[in-house]
Amino acid sequence: MTYPSSRPDVLIVGAGVVGAACAYACTAAGLRVAVVERGAAGGGTTSAGEGNILVSDKEPGPELDLALLSSRRWREISEDLGGGTVEYEAKGGVVVAGSRETADGLLRLTAGQRARGVDAVDIGPGELSELEPRVTRQAVGGAFYPQDAQVQPMLATAHLLRRARQRGAVVHTGTGVVGFVRDRRGAVTGVRTDSAEVPVVSARWVINAAGTWAGRLSRLAGAPVPVLPRKGYVLVTEPLPRVVRHKVYTAEYLANVASSDAGLETSVVVEGTRAGTVLIGASRERVGFDRGVSLPVLRTLAAQAIGLFPFLADVLLLRSYLGFRPYCPDHLPVIGADPRAPGLLHACGHEGAGVGLAAATGHLLAQHLTGERPDLDLTPFRPDRFEEATA
Amino acid sequence: MTTSPAERPGTRYDIAVLGAGPAGLAAAVAAAGQGAGTVLIDAGARPGGQYWRHREGDEGALHHGWGHFRRLRRGLSAHGADYRPGHCVWHVERTEAGFTVHATREGSPRTVRAKAVIVATGAYDRQLPFPGWTTPGVFTAGAVQALLKGHGVPAGRRIAVAGTGPFLLPVAAGLAEAGVRVVGVFEAGLPTAFGRHPLATLRNLPKLAEGAGYLGTLLRHRVPYRTRTTVVAAHGTATVTGATVARLDQRWRIVPGSTREIDCDTVAVGYGFTPQTEIPLQLGCAMRRDADGSLVARVDARQRASVDGVYVAGEACGVGGAQLSAVEGELAGLHAAYATTGSAPDRRRLAGLLRRRAAQRSFAAALHRAYPVPDGWQTWLERDTTVCRCEEVTAGAIREAVDDLGATDPRAVKLYARPGMGLCQGRVCGYATTCLVARATGRRPTADDLRGMATRPIAHPLTLGALAAGDDSGGDDSGGG
Ligand SMILES: Cc1cc2nc3c(=O)[nH]c(=O)nc-3n(C[C@H](O)[C@H](O)[C@H](O)COP(=O)(O)OP(=O)(O)OC[C@H]3O[C@@H](n4cnc5c(N)ncnc54)[C@H](O)[C@@H]3O)c2cc1C
Ligand SMILES: Cc1cc2nc3c(=O)[nH]c(=O)nc-3n(C[C@H](O)[C@H](O)[C@H](O)COP(=O)(O)OP(=O)(O)OC[C@H]3O[C@@H](n4cnc5c(N)ncnc54)[C@H](O)[C@@H]3O)c2cc1C
User: Fold this and answer.
1) Ligand 1 atom 50: the closest Cα is on which residue?
2) What is the CATH number of the domain that holds A218?
């Protein structure tokens, strides 16, 4: 591959799943793309999460619309990349209600979701144990979401970037952005990096896809967006025969996803992987970038997983990992052009759904940059909404 | 062992020693001897670690330094240290008051609290992949030795011993003495470097005499000893039926035309050691890449790691043999006892230990220079040679993760191609994967590369039930995080 002699149209900062999806969509739209990543591709939060592409966990609203669009885009992308290569699987999600009260809440949620286009099927205990034979007998009912799918986030990132490179994109890993270049009128025209090989990269547009570090990057550009870390753990068991068939989670999880409570929240999502291991996630905690392992959190996750699938009590835990979800105070991502810094766009703050929402994010930004009318109204995700809120 | 008051639930020890090999035993005895409340925790059924591994009732006929072991074992009870065999430590947590050690005993959770910890978890054999290395009948040299020492069982009837390093000799000699036919000792290196380090040699005459003794044993049993030669392939499907042996050049590439087939039913292989560093990594201790290419904990002159209250002794802070491990353990025990109880160690004793440590470390460094592992072993592999046996990842798949998917470090390769994701969590393939990725990306392995394959928040598998239950006997540990 030769480096394009002229400057790229789009420079993407960050090669996580979101940056990779932007590179994929922009090159597909015929734009010239460069990506700068301070570490290794996918080495940020993307390497520390699960790959759920969920519509089930979202309440009616802009994020659900984004998720529905993204779930369609992921299906197309995985066909393009080869579903096997990114381990795309539309295995469906099962939400389990442990009490009558939760079950009633779930019924209201599914009704609202159906109205927005979600395929949500209310199920009783009998259907539940047909879908998930080993699930707890305590469950009073639940819902089935055939649209819920997954990819392997690292493979997805690698293959999205690979396709983008095939279409001429250039990816600089080990290259951190340390500042922005602006023209006389204040428009962003490129970035300065910490690499002697590419000290400056100029571009017509710069996309901030720096994940949990996007807040820091946005401050460098003088156009701050409040992206903060929300810590989460995943537990991984020994490989088992296929005993958990879907993504299975408690209805209480839905409350946690949307919560703003600063303390620890755990509500478990259990799923089997191709490799046979069972993944158990995920806790949500706001403790900054503290990498220390907290056993009480692991303990709670384990207990909740056993509550959902009693057989797990005798299954061996092999490892655990943790990461920091990029979240915004209103729990919506930031997607779109920043009026405070012409030339700068954001694609960040996807919290616990960045893998799921990446495909739509890249797609919408590419539409915006090529002057097409975006499939979704980007207003709810606009970067300057936080200033309005405090003003 | 007597039940001391310290054993009551909820009690906090001054010092918890993790691992009861030469380093841990020496540490526990030294600490308890200074009056520190000490607990010695070990996964094995009997103390001794890898070096003094023995059977029930075995009183040391086959062992070196058995008198030393007996003294340490006596010291343990004489000084009132608590000894907890059969405890697998899976996590060590820092708390405000010190440390909580989380272990399982027969699957049930156990916790122990202490003001300081001494990590003496040792090392295990480093393996390199080669075609056929996953065939039943290919063992690590350490496993073969453990079978013999720990169970009195020879691993096979016609055994080839291959790899590099002086510790192949005791394994082969032990087998020969137990009446096993050792078809050859194939040393990939050319250990002549000792001649160039006369000082180290002089200071460690006793150790070399040990080596000479082993060589004598091999000679007596007519076991061929070949240098710059190794087993480059094992044959057979259900079990090993033979192996290919080849001569190597200086960089360990196969000398063309030098391969030959040998008849054996077992291959014992060891290419040095991989220290067990999960616990220092969990605790956030600074690490370094040692002269032999292994990731080890950094320690200062008092065996202190970079994290307050954490000491590391023995192979976990650098491979150097049983005697060095014991010296380091004793130092760690004395210093940790002083730090936690204020009981000052005897100066002359300290000075003597420091002298011995310096001499043995320079000997260890000379060993590492004499037995390097150059990366030519990578040329023995075929594309379809398994590197990670748990997840069945081939050398070709690792190469593709770098060439096609753009992985630049072992951690990314692990996430793309899954080496190190299986049951053993990269304990076996971590070193090889790191080297393969480094070479494929045109550089040398770094400490960060190694760390990416060695970080394990769960040092030992436990059931989710045990994790969820926590320990109700060892005191409260819920407030630690
Ligand atoms: C435990 C856990 C479970 C999760 N489960 C799911 C799930 O099931 N489904 C789902 O959709 N999401 C899940 N997530 C969330 C998901 O992982 C994230 O939303 C997503 O990975 C974010 O992707 P990103 O590309 O925005 O960020 P990252 O992957 O963090 O990428 C940002 C990149 O920017 C780079 N960067 C930062 N600053 C600079 C700079 N100055 N210069 C150059 N490069 C820079 C970083 O190095 C990084 O590689 C989970 C997260 C966690 C922690
Ligand atoms: C095949 C072979 C031959 C050798 N021959 C010689 C020789 O001839 N001369 C020589 O000087 N040296 C020899 N050695 C090296 C010698 O065995 C080591 O140098 C020595 O045992 C290191 O002592 P240590 O205390 O650091 O670790 P070890 O002896 O390995 O002891 C570590 C202990 O920690 C325990 N442990 C580890 N992790 C955990 C955990 N998570 N929870 C609980 N317990 C844990 C282990 O069970 C073990 O008992 C040989 C080694 C091998 C493998």
Assistant:
1) A49
2) 3.50.50.60
Task: Identify whether residues B104 and B158 lie together within a single domain.
Answer: no
> What is the predicted pLDDT for the residue at A2?
39
Please check whether residues B132 and B23 belong to one and the same domain: no
Cα–Cα distance measured from residue A47 to residue A17, given in angstroms and rounded to the nearest whole number: 9
Higher pLDDT, B209 or A328: A328
If one residue of B167, B292, B424 were mutated to test the ligand 2 pocket, choosing by the most ligand atoms within 8 A of its CB, it would be: B167
The predicted complex's ipTM stands at 0.90
Nearest residue in B to A42, CA atom: B412
B366 lies in some domain = no
Q: Whose CA is nearest to atom 20 of ligand 1?
A: A354
Per-residue model confidence (pLDDT) at position B478? 34
Count how many domains chain A has. 2
Per-residue model confidence as pLDDT tens digits over B224-275: 999 999 999 999 999 999 999 999 999 999 999 999 999 999 999 999 999 9
**Contact at CB, B391 and A235, closer than 8 angstroms:** no
Quick check: is B481 in a domain? no
Residue B170 near ligand 2, beta carbon < 6 Å: yes
Answer yes or no: do B339 and B423 share one domain.
Answer: no
Return the CATH number at B443.
1.10.10.1100
Q: Record the pTM.
A: 0.91
Edge-to-edge, what's the strand order for the sheet holding B138-140?
A: B138-140, B266-271, B158-164, B181-187, B225-227
Cβ-proximal residues to B22 (8 Å cutoff; 6+ apart), any chain? B49, B51, B52, B314, B322, B323, B325, B326, B329
For A173-221, the pLDDT digits (tens) are 999 999 999 999 989 999 999 999 999 999 999 999 999 999 999 999 9
A180, exposed or middle or buried, with CB in 10 Å at 0-12, 13-18, 19+?
buried
What is the distance in angstroms between the CA of the first residue and the CA of the last residue of chain B? 33
| Residue A188 belongs to a domain | yes
Strands B287-289 and B266-271: unpaired
Percent of chain B whose predicted confidence (pLDDT) is above 70:
91
Is the pLDDT score of B9 beyond 70?
no
Specify whether the CB–CB gap between A9 and A204 falls below 8 A.
Answer: yes
Q: Looking at residue A284, which CATH number applies to its domain?
A: 3.30.9.10
Q: Tell me which residue range forms the domain holding A296.
A: 91-146+228-327
- Spacing, Cα B127 to ligand 2 middle (Å): 16
CATH number (domain holding residue B236): 3.50.50.60
Size of interface A-B (CB pairs under 8 A): 112
Range of the domain at B441: 381-454
Smallest CA–CA distance, residue B409 to chain A, in Å, is: 8
Identify whether residues A133 and A243 lie together within a single domain.
Answer: yes
Confidence of residue B65 (pLDDT cuts 50, 70, 90): confident
Question: Is there a contact between A42 and A361 (Cβ–Cβ < 8 Å)?
Answer: no
Q: Is the CB of A356 under 6 A from ligand 1?
A: yes
Q: Is B102 in the same domain as B152?
A: no
Q: Are residues B132 and B256 in the same domain?
A: yes
Q: Is residue B386 part of a domain?
A: yes
> What's the CA-to-centroid distance between B424 and ligand 2, angstroms?
18
CA distance A208 to A361: 12
Ligand 1 center from residue B68 Cα (angstroms):
54
**Do B409 and B316 share a structural domain?**
no
Token readout for A190 is 């490129």
- Inform me whether the pLDDT recorded for A39 exceeds 50: yes
